[in-house]
Amino acid sequence: MNTLVYSSHEFDIPFLEKEAKNKHQLTFTKQALNLSTVNLAQGFEAIALFSNDNPCKEVLEKLHQFGVKFIALRSVGFDHVDLDESKTLGIKVANVPEYSPYAIAEHGVAMLMMLNRKLYEAQLLIQLQDFRLDTLVGFDLNKKKIGIIGTGKIGLVFAKIMNGFGCEILAYDPVQINNSDELNITYTSLEQLLKESDIVSLNCPLNTSTKKLLSEPQFEIMKKGAILINTARGGVICTESLLKYLENGHLGGACLDVFENEKGLYFFDHRNTIIKDQLFVRLRNLKNVVLTSHQAFLTNEALTGIAQTTISNLSQWEKEGISSNDLN
Ligand code: NAD
């Protein structure tokens, strides 16, 4: 199957090429899919997309005109795809429902440790040969309350890791797991979780029920000094409100791997441009905010898993006209 891979990067091309060998012909473009790049898909029956591509209604209509029949998403999240429109047009869409939940959960913990134990500042001070410790005081995670919003694959790995630190785990999810006792997880309302937790981790998908789930009223009831971790999707929080509660000192800090306006920003080299997005600039200027540019998935194991499932989705669709990870 001759497939155009949009938003391909040096970090994922080798993994995709290895899995596709002798099965599929992949053509790579660094460009993200949008209205100005959709023409590149002419002549391809299948395309592969990443989380920051934009298969909106107009783009899907063009893809349909060009004869594209299958979209292989290289992501768990599918909040960026107009699934209703793709169904109407008869374009099948499949995702990678699981690759390595460890990659994302471990990255959340890494950001938390970096923020709490002030590791970035500690490294800078070491380079300056300033060995004073006065600005580097953190807190023990042991016995702290961790609130997990979304106890799916990633949320549960995160819960297991935090159990290892001796934390108390609260969780909020409309679908509760059966063996929550074994994992020391206590389900509660969102409100109680926000009121009681020292650290809140977002591990739910972005959909109509979670869009701006955390806005001003939710930040208002969060515990003073609490830390927020978001490795899910930027749109789950209202960044403007988050900034208000970071800047007024109510929240202790934030660890953000994803950002509401990350499309067109993350995954690209902006070294020679002035970043105009004031939400991003304000976040970056805060000392108690750790930002990474959507890199939580970036491990060898996760990239292997993404490539394997993407290629298997393509093969299944080519043979049977549908794949087991079909979304529509
Ligand atoms: P999952 O489907 O296994 O789990 C999601 C959980 O969220 C489910 O248990 C679901 O019931 C719950 N949920 C749904 N609506 C909710 C709501 N309103 N409130 C609370 N919980 C709700 O998914 P997963 O593999 O754990 O991934 C979670 C999300 O992480 C993905 O949807 C994706 O957006 C994000 N993600 C980010 C990266 C990254 O690199 N930063 C990588 C992979 C996934």
Summary, kept brief:
The chain has 328 residues and is α/β, with parallel strands linked by helices. Helix content is 34%, strand content 14%.
Helix content: 25-40%
How much β-strand is present in the residues? Answer: 5-15%
Q: What Rg, in angstroms, do the CA atoms define?
A: 21 Å
| CATH fold node name of the largest domain | Rossmann fold
Q: How would you write the strand order of the largest sheet?
A: 8-7-6-9-10-11-12
Question: Helices and strands: which structural class?
Answer: alpha/beta
Biggest sheet features: 7 strands, parallel
Query: Could you list the spans in which at least 5 consecutive residues all have pLDDT below 50?
Result: none
Tally of discrete structural domains = 2
- Amino-to-carboxy terminus distance: 21 Å
Number of strands: 12
Global outline: globular
Q: What top-tier CATH class of the largest domain fits best?
A: Alpha Beta
Architecture of the largest domain, CATH level 2?
3-Layer(aba) Sandwich
Number of helices: 11
Describe, in plain words, how this protein is organized in 3D:
This protein has a 7-stranded parallel beta sheet with strand order 8-7-6-9-10-11-12, with helices on both faces. A 5-stranded parallel beta sheet has the order 2-1-3-4-5, with helices on both faces. The protein has helices spanning 13-20, 57-66, 83-89, 101-116, 119-127, 153-164, 190-196, 216-221, 239-247, 278-285, 300-320; strands at 2-5, 25-28, 46-49, 70-73, 92-94, 145-149, 168-172, 185-187, 199-202, 227-230, 253-256, 289-291. The protein has 2 domains: 2-99 and 300-320, NAD(P)-binding Rossmann-like Domain (Rossmann fold, 3-Layer(aba) Sandwich); 101-291, NAD(P)-binding Rossmann-like Domain (Rossmann fold). Helix 4 packs across helix 6 (153-164). The radius of gyration is 21 Å and the shape is globular. Helix content is 34%, strand content 14%. The protein contains 11 helices and 12 strands. It is of the alpha/beta class and 328 residues long. Strand 4 (70-73), helix 3 and strand 5 form a beta-alpha-beta unit. The mean pLDDT is 97. It binds nicotinamide-adenine-dinucleotide (NAD). The site of nicotinamide-adenine-dinucleotide has 29 residues, from helix 4 and helix 6. Nicotinamide-adenine-dinucleotide (NAD) is lined by residues 76-77, 101, 104, 149-155, 172-175, 203-206, 209-210, 231-233, 257-258, 294, 296-297.
